[in-house]
Amino acid sequence: MPSHHLHSFSSAFTLVTLFSLSFPLSTHSSFDFNEATVDSIQEAFKNRSLTSVQLVRHYLSRINNLNPRLRAVIEVNPDALAQAVKADLERERYPYDRNRLHGIPILLKDNIGTADKLNTTAGSFALLGSVVSRDSGVVRRLRKVGAVILGKASMSEWAHFRSETAPNGWCARSGQGINPYAASASPCGSSSGPAIAAAANLATVTLGTETDGSIICPAAVNSVVGIKPTVGLTSRSMVIPVSPRQDTIGPICRTVRDAVYVLDAIAGYDVYDSKATKEAAKYIPKGGYRRFLNFDGLRGKRIGILREGFFNFSSNSVQAKIFEQHFSLMRKKGAILMDNLQIANTSVILDYNQSGEELAVVAEFKVALNNYLSQLTSSPVRSLADVISFNEKHKKEEKIKEYGQLVFLASESTDGINSIVRYAISNMAQLSSKGIEALMREKQLDAIVTPDATVSSILGIGGYPGISLPAGYDEIGVPFGICFGGLKGYEPRLIEIAYAFEQATKVRKPPSFKDNFQIVSDL
């Protein structure tokens, strides 16, 4: 087993320290790094006021400074500076227009495989030292366009699928992830690390995954933008799975524009995830998604407001008042809002047990994980049963005893995709067909709108896309989000709506770190 795969949580800081010995972490640049966007960085690259090396050094410094408190990053990439040097040399030698992500540092959720010196562990010590046989499909595309793989972000361990009692944002390798706006607030999961990192400016852009709410929810509560793509639009190959039927990979960024740049880079066919990506490839518009960044994108859009079962706060709350202001603004921008719409069998769909989602996903996980583990070049564990045994053996040092692994045990007890599971999957398909699909087609909707991640199960069981973006902050400053969802392939419409909404409202503000954060000034 290669020794370079044996980094623990503390190695994130060790590696930053090692970098600082060879490369001073000060950037020597007049560039304003605060809330830096892909476009502002590319402009700085072009006018030579910034290099990729300076940018990577800045983020390493910020990780070194903030991560001991936020626990958003599990490992930094020991090759990040080398990749930045390569990007700078390419730009110097061949100064033609490149992909917008060229030379841009990105953090990846720790279940996204990289065939390099980084671990891919889903936040668990059980997979520490495992070696993937190849880059994941999305990472291969990121490398192709010249993005810098900055490191791995923390997450709810095993995508919050090991235990029902473990808190959101907790994993054995990095501990409890912290919401940068309020330490007492949940960072949500399972893509907690990417969302925390994006919110706290620990990278330019980040990448997460979702089975049911794992992009939309952390994006909402950390005041960033998350895109959950149509299932299959982005490859899941060499990504630690939960349910291949529902899993999808998507960007978590500070702006809609940056998220769209990432989506454009990672969407497309992959031979290693051929069935799903071939089916979804028909939805990718010619020229990509960037052209749907339209300031006037709300005009003429038919948007359905789902109230009952989704807007679960009092009419006098800050959230309720802000949402009404948003709806008023959307109407002024030309949107046609249809209020108080209802999806058939909403209560059933939102009940993880009644819909059949729990039964199906628990069975799918065992099959999918065992298949993933079989593809690893080397690994301490080769099956879900091995993982369960590992956890039991090491429960004292990993606090596993406290949180248990009941979901793992339930999954291991299944016998695969049997007739009962197939019936549950069929039932979810019927709920989707007679629910969101029937409503959107009857009302000719371009999108539905809900707060936070309340709609995640509806989008999850049907493989539908959604975009979450900042909507406001409650009485104590905790962020909440607004989510636009649609049918398969509706990403162009959702991007137009989300971008126009973002540009009209300008809600997002960076965290102030006033909530008992022990923060020192940047190096």
TrEMBL record:
Source taxon at top rank: Eukaryota
Record keywords, A-Z: Signal
InterPro entries from the UniProt entry: Amidase_dom (IPR023631), AS_sf (IPR036928)
One Pfam family per UniProt: Amidase
Signal peptide: 1-29
Descriptive protein name: Amidase domain-containing protein
Amidase domain location: 55-453
UniProt organism field: Rhynchospora tenuis
Keyword Transcription regulation carried by entry: no
